[in-house]
Amino acid sequence: MKRFLTILLAIFMTISLVACGNANKSQTAIANGTYKGEGNGKGGKISVEVTIKDDTITDVKVLEQKETPGYETAMDTLKENILSKNSLEVDIVAGCTLTSKGYLEAITAALKAAGATPDMLKKNQGKDADVTKKEVSKTHDIVIIGAGGAGLSAAIEAKQAGADVIVLEKMPMAGGNTLISGAEYAAPNNWIQKKEGIKDSPDQFAKDTIKGGDNENDPELVKVVAENALAGAEWLRDEVGVVWQDDLMFFGGHSVKRSLIPAGANGKEIIRKQVAKAESLNIPILYNTTAMSLITDSNGKVIGVEAEGEDTKYTFNTNKAVIIASGGFGSNIEMRVKYNPAMDKKVLSTNTVGSTGDGIVMGEKIGAELVGMEHIQTYPVCDPLTGTLLYFGDARMYGHTIMVNKEGRRFVEELERRDVISMAIKEQTDSVCYQLLDQKGLEASKLEEQHGAEMEYLYKNKLLVKANTIEEAAAFFDIDAKEFKATLDRYNGYVKDGKDKEFNKRSMPSTIDTAPFYILKAAPAVHHTMGGLKINTKAEVINKDGKVIEGLYAAGEVTGGVHGTNRLGSNALADITVFGRIAGQNAAK
Ligand code: ADP
């Protein structure tokens, strides 16, 4: 889950830095003072000021950063660890690899400005040594596993219903996949639809969802989401303080425009407000604490959770229930392959590293039934370095791109279903694709305006090239230029004829012939795992005999059944909010 940063010294040799002239000479190896340094995170420059006293880092201030919303917490966690160990050999914060690297680069650069290397920091004796974990036993009414959207919804509801609640979160911050998602929320009959005169109904939403899930959905669960989605969005707005934009998005598979967009168009708005609400209700969220197993009594009733913190082994006993809200298993390759052999390591993951299916495994161990585990949704155009979903790839949806392999050939219809394109890319050389776009297409897709920061990141990491000729662009990625040119000439001919003779591409709005040309290198990644614990409409977990497991509830991506074979965009937020609330309310009874 976490890994050591081993490249610090190499980074140290290469990075640029700015020294601040406030250093005093002393007997120490590093002169006391404050020093500035810069590194490169995911969003660009991270600039820090490091204070050194007696060869010890006493403070790190971030002066400038443009990281993904929510990832500032990663820097806070790193700072805490660096200060407590007086070392830069700290674990990268899982899920925030590039941010962590950029932050550590910046501190290394600051040390260089001090004329020092990380190994000159005073050794911090004892603190690093392995200590036996202390054992703590506690009792609460309800223990919730996971502080993503489902877990936090459950926590707020349960607490407001009068229960004593604690939330366990294995990562150093709240949010899970909810935080890094666009967090659009499908809500039939919502207030913006009414204003815009869009006719909709829970029934229509349910029909769309079941069609999108190839009829493999549990219709009872879908009905619950459909009938409560709007109330959930209103609850987030009125009770939790989430700000929804005054606009809607139209996602594939929905028959009408019905998806609300949170302020900032990402999950930070939801999670920040939910955490603030939880704090205002005095709900403890125990970070860096991993639930390991469920405790049951002789009748199979769940009566607690065993968990591990950094230096503590916990036994949490429950008076009422445990709610599993630990998300999906998109980041667990072994588990993916177990249920769907095509989802091997060649397919990256858009998920946070916390999405390892822990709750599914814990539930199964005590007899829970699993449903739809083989249904794993992929997204075709993601960052080959990190698996992050790339919005630059959206040009494809406007019809402006062709996708080729290293050999310069097209291999799939660019507007096929996500899963078909993903699997086709996986079979190509290096399991990557190259997406070509010209200046006309770039402008028509408004990519520069909307995703300028992502483009900057892509250029910097050599995943996107802008070139005046096709040959130059191809050379950048070592694509067979001759074949590529021939492919493009053929495609432009198809555009003029109005018929793609090779792949029957359904939309070809314009030829690709206007310099400059852009090529994006991308790879498919797992996006959502539809399968999981079987629940009923009360969010109770069901065992292999079809009976309720007493004392156990589940909500969110950890459950199966709502989405069938395929989740429609923006249905996850509705699902996790609706069932998170239901789990919280029922567990508190
Ligand atoms: P959902 O959308 O269903 O709420 P998320 O992925 O947003 O799912 O949130 C799930 C959360 O559960 C993540 O923050 C993840 O780190 C956390 N989590 C996963 N496994 C465990 C575990 N064993 N113990 C504690 N927290 C966990």
Automatic annotation (TrEMBL):
<keyword id="KW-0285">Flavoprotein</keyword>
<keyword id="KW-0560">Oxidoreductase</keyword>
<dbReference type="Pfam" id="PF04205">
    <property type="entry name" value="FMN_bind"/>
</dbReference>
<dbReference type="InterPro" id="IPR003953">
    <property type="entry name" value="FAD-dep_OxRdtase_2_FAD-bd"/>
</dbReference>
<dbReference type="InterPro" id="IPR010960">
    <property type="entry name" value="Flavocytochrome_c"/>
</dbReference>
<comment type="similarity">
    <text>Belongs to the FAD-dependent oxidoreductase 2 family. FRD/SDH subfamily.</text>
</comment>
<feature type="signal peptide">
    <location>
        <begin position="1"/>
        <end position="19"/>
    </location>
</feature>
<dbReference type="InterPro" id="IPR007329">
    <property type="entry name" value="FMN-bd"/>
</dbReference>
<dbReference type="InterPro" id="IPR050315">
    <property type="entry name" value="FAD-oxidoreductase_2"/>
</dbReference>
<feature type="domain" description="FMN-binding">
    <location>
        <begin position="41"/>
        <end position="114"/>
    </location>
</feature>
<keyword id="KW-0732">Signal</keyword>
<protein>
    <recommendedName>
        <fullName>Urocanate reductase</fullName>
        <ecNumber>1.3.99.33</ecNumber>
    </recommendedName>
</protein>
<dbReference type="Pfam" id="PF00890">
    <property type="entry name" value="FAD_binding_2"/>
</dbReference>
<keyword id="KW-0274">FAD</keyword>
